Amino acid sequence: MLSKSQIDALPGDGKSLKDDRIPGLVLRDGSRVKVWYYVKKVKGQVKKIKLGEWPGMGINAARNAAQIEAANLTANRQTIKYSYTVRDVFNDWASRREGVKKSLAEDRRKMEHELAELAEYDLLEVSSEHINDLKRRMKDTPIAFNRCLALLRTLFNHARNVMEIDVPNVANAVPKNPEKPRTAKIPLEKAAAFFNALNAPGRDRTFVDIIKVLLYTGQRKSNVFSMEWNELNLETAVWIIPAAKSKNGKRMPTVLSPEVVAILRRRQQENPGSRWVFPAIRRPWQVDRFGHERQTGAGHVSDIRGSYKKLCADAGLPELTIHDLRRTCATWMLSAGASIEQVSAHLHHEDIRITQQVYAEMLLQPIRAGVDLMREAIENAQK
Predict the structure, then answer these.
(1) What is the tens place of the pLDDT at every residue in 240-270?
(2) What is the value of pTM for the model shown?
(3) Where are the alpha helices (DSSP H) in the chain?
């Protein structure tokens, strides 16, 4: 039987406590506020109606309110506005993007980990201060917070524009952390050390193949990991990345170097009948970077971060991201004399200005060589 002392002693763990007198009356024990709801299934749909907050609404008042809502539902009359949690909005948003948004699995992971506490809040209860609290807790991972903030802004917009919930987008009031574009890459003078470490005895061959394909093609890891044999023409040395897998939603023909073609021919012989170029080693569970166990589902390799971190250490390099191999490919192409147009086309940048901005420092090298020639000419003229 519910009592004031029992409710006051609740730990604030987000769980719901059912009333033993009025069916459907529950008290959600939030970390900051305790909220009364009346929950009833009507025509196959669960209706969740917010009644009030404890202690402003006491036990008897909540029971009376629940009985009124039960009568309203029974009489099929208009009830007060239903309450939605952040998770409710996410589930509605995600259901509309299934099979369309490639990073949906990562968004679900955010909801289960970084946003787990906020996910159980009623949308109308979330304030900018709640999000600022999250920002302070994630101060050591500022970029990860920015991604969470972007997701929250999206969810509030979805609630307003699609679900027609009259709620302000409080996430817009929270500034994101400053981000500096990464310029990290493997210096050309470190190439020998990198390849020596990569080709060292005992290194997993599939891992080695993936790294070389990433480096020679300059393509994104999601495309390389999910490469399929029906995307490849080894006779013409062309890989067609389908529009469904590309970032810009367009079909992307990619030139394959002889080194990559040789790797692919060998793998084709080693994995006959496989759909994937880099099939996964089936394991029922994996531990992600946050230490959480998750069930695997992809039929192809999906994570090489542990092996890549060890490779960088063995090569005497600072810890680089896998995406830095894409920047390394572009930088080495420019160093070898490729034009900015060639590099932009190889990376499939929609606008050449993107390439120019990211690799502006490399573009100064031929200018610097020209300035040196001018200086030598001036010095010779003065002799």
Answers:
(1) 999 888 877 788 999 999 999 999 999 999 9
(2) 0.56
(3) 4-8, 59-74, 86-95, 104-112, 116-119, 128-137, 142-161, 191-198, 205-217, 221-225, 258-270, 305-314, 324-335, 340-347, 352-358, 360-381
